[in-house]
Structure formats: C-alpha cells, structure tokens
Amino acid sequence: MKIEQIELFVVRIPLIPIAAGGIAPYRGHNLPPGQGLTSAASCIYKVVTDDGLVGWGETNPVVNFSFHRALFEEVLRPALIGSDPLNREEICRKISPSFVPPLFSRSLLAGIDMACWDILGQAANRPVYDLLGGMIRERVGIAYCIGIFEEEATREKILSIREQGFPTLKIKGGGDVVSDVQRTFAAREHTGPEMNLRIDMNQGYDFTQAARFLNSTESLDLEYIEQPLPVNQFDAMAALRSRCKTPVAINEDCYIPHNLFEFIRQKAIDLAVVDLDPLGGISALVKVANYCAEAGLPLAHHCGFDMGIKLAAILQVYAARPALSHAVDSTYMGHADDILVEPIQIVEGHYLVPQGPGLGVTVDEDKIRRYSLESAGQE
User: What is the pLDDT, as a whole number, of residue 102?
Assistant: First the structure.
C-alpha cells in the first residue's frame, strides 16, 4: 500500500454567539472585553492510497495559513507521496528533520499521522482503539470550555452547562489576580459542588501572583490550575505545588522537548494537559500516555476548537489509554457546525467513542468545500 495523493484544505466554521447559547466571542486574559474568537479554523488533510482507501486528519495551522500551506507543499507532500501509510515511524523519520518545535510544525506530522491511523483501521476493519490494545472506556467526560464573559452572561452559560449534565467546566484566567479570584468564586457558586472546575492561566502569572490566586481559592476544591507560570519554570512550579493543595498542571510545557519528563522527575506537577496536535499525532500521544501511566501521572486532553476529525482521534486514544483519566477539554458544543456527516454523539455530558473502522467518523466533503477559505478567496 502506498500514499498516492495528499490534499490540504483550510476551513473556517462560525462559533455560536453567547447570546444564542454558544461561546463566542471566546477570549482569554490577553484580549479586552468584546474581543475574542468568533470562528474556528482547521487544516484538514486527505490522504488517498493506491488501494483507494481515504484517511483524514485535522490540525490547527502553524503560525498562519500561508506558512502552513508552504510547509505542506514544499516539505511534507513531496516527502510522503509513495510512502507506506502503515509505516508511521518511517514517515516521521522522513520529515522530522524539518521540524522546529517552537513553531509547532509537528502539527504537520500530526495531521498525516492521524490520517494514516484512519487508513490502518479501515484496512483492518477495526476502530483505532482496537489497534491500540482494545477499549477500556466507551465514553469520555467533557470539560465544557468557556472564555471570559460579562458576569450575567457567565452565570447563565454556566447554569445551562450544569443543567445539560456536563461533569466539568473549564474557565480562563491569568490576568488580574483579584478579578480571577472573583470570577472563580462566582463560577463555583454557579456550578455547585457536584461539578469539576478547572482554570487555565495560559502562562499569565508570575510566582507571587500564582501563589496569591491559589491561597485565595483553596476552599473552592478546583480540579486543577493549568499552566499558571511561563514555560521552563521547573523549580518555581515545584515550589508552587509544595505550598498549595490545589493540583497543578502544565500544558504549553508539554510541547517543549524533554520538559514533561523533567517536570515528572522533579515531582513538580500533579497532572499534564496534552494535545496530539503539537505533540505530533496519535502515535506521539500514545507514547506520552504510556510513559505517564508508568510515572503515575494523569492526563487530560487540550482543546483546539476541533471540528470532528481530531476530536474522533482524541476519543480513540482515550478509549484505549488509562492515563487519559480526566475529562477532555472541548468547545465542540459551541460550534455552528462540524465537517462530519453525523456529529459525534454526546450523552449526559459525555462523548460516545466512535465505533466504526479507523477514526469511526465519516467526513462530509461538501461541508469542507462549503467552509473552505480557499473557495471563499480568504486564504
């Protein structure tokens, strides 16, 4: 079996406005009120073999769309046409020397790796989770992600999320400590004690700010605080962990070579939030999950405003790896559409793991054309 054709599509789908029950404008601490994401964009890969099998992958763009497409056209596609899609190690070897981790160019590999796993599952007529050793969980809890909104909109949104039965809420912080503390107390009041509550600081604090926030919110029983400090702060994160009861997690640090290992070695974290996109795909996520299981470190998966293909890939790994024990971050419920024929099912605040061969989902190519930026002349 050989790769005969690889195509790249860049698509953009609107996010549902907060007033209509959605999540837009979605913003973190680094944007002023009223600004934020109103749409989601993804790079979609279609890999076709000489046997007629079609595999799909999805990643976020590297830096911008034009740079991503240039890397795809000049580096990735020429290197991989004619390769065996089942030999993922060889594919990684061919293009890894071109990777620059700070540019997150491993997402190029992630999209192809994902498509190759999809092809392998179809060839074997088995879901990817079976190829990873078999299913250990049929459904995955959802951490409903929301940005920073005005107080009343936040209250109504959280109450709606709670009523729909989602087990976990993820909110944003990392700006002014006092405002973050007030917003977190309000969020816990609205969720009630039965929901998990996690907060992502996106490297927004220094050590003193992080300590102040954690001291002030100790009573709220947060599930964890994510990446409170800038990357590479091993000693500071270990010190922060030692002085607070709230679990401390990293995210951005996970994509810097050797950082996750070093945080584990120094006993500086309680949890890691990973993403198969900047890691390099399903294969890389499986390796990380295996290592973290041995180290006794639990994992959650990050959200990249995924449109269905990547979400299916994430769920396939969740289904087969014990370390992915915490709910998956997601904004999928706040998207106006996806690029699948049938959306991924949600039951009682949990995703049902797709059961079909490969990634278990069917891509709607009409939707890809409809939402393509190239077709709209925007790329």
Answer: 46
Dihedral over Cα of 277, 283, 288, 293: its sign: positive
Positions of the chain with pLDDT lower than 70, given as ranges: 96-105, 375-379
Alpha-carbon gap, residue 312 to 299, rounded angstroms: 17
CATH of the domain spanning 3-126+364-371, picked from 3.40.30.10, 3.30.390.10, 3.30.590.20, 3.90.180.10: 3.30.390.10
**365, 11 contact by CB (below 8 A):** no
State in words which class domain 130-352 has.
alpha beta
pLDDT digits (tens, 9 = 90+) for 250-297: 999 999 989 999 999 999 999 999 999 999 999 999 999 999 999 999
Three-state SS sequence of the chain: CCEEEEEEEEEEEEECEHHHCCCECECCCCCCCCCCECEEEEEEEEEEECCCCEEEEEECCCCCHHHHHHHHHHHHHHHHCCCCCCCHHHHHHHHHHHCCHHHCCHHHHHHHHHHHHHHHHHHHCCEHHHHCCCCCCCEEEEEEECCCCCHHHHHHHHHHHHHCCCCEEEEECCCCHHHHHHHHHHHHHHHCCCCEEEEECCCCCCHHHHHHHHHHCHHHCCCEEECCCCCCCHHHHHHHHHCCCCCEEECHHHHCCCHHHHHHHCCCCCEEEECHHHHCCHHHHHHHHHHHHHHCCCEEECCCCCCCHHHHHHHHHHCCCCCCCCCEEECHHHECCCCECCCCCEECCEEECCCCCECCCCECHHHHHHHECCCCCCC
Which pLDDT value is given to residue 6?
96
**CA gap 23, 364 in Å, rounded:** 24
Can you give the residue ranges of every domain in the chain? 3-126+364-371, 130-352
Q: How confident is the model at residue 315, as a pLDDT?
A: 98
The residue written with tokens 């679990």 in the block is 247
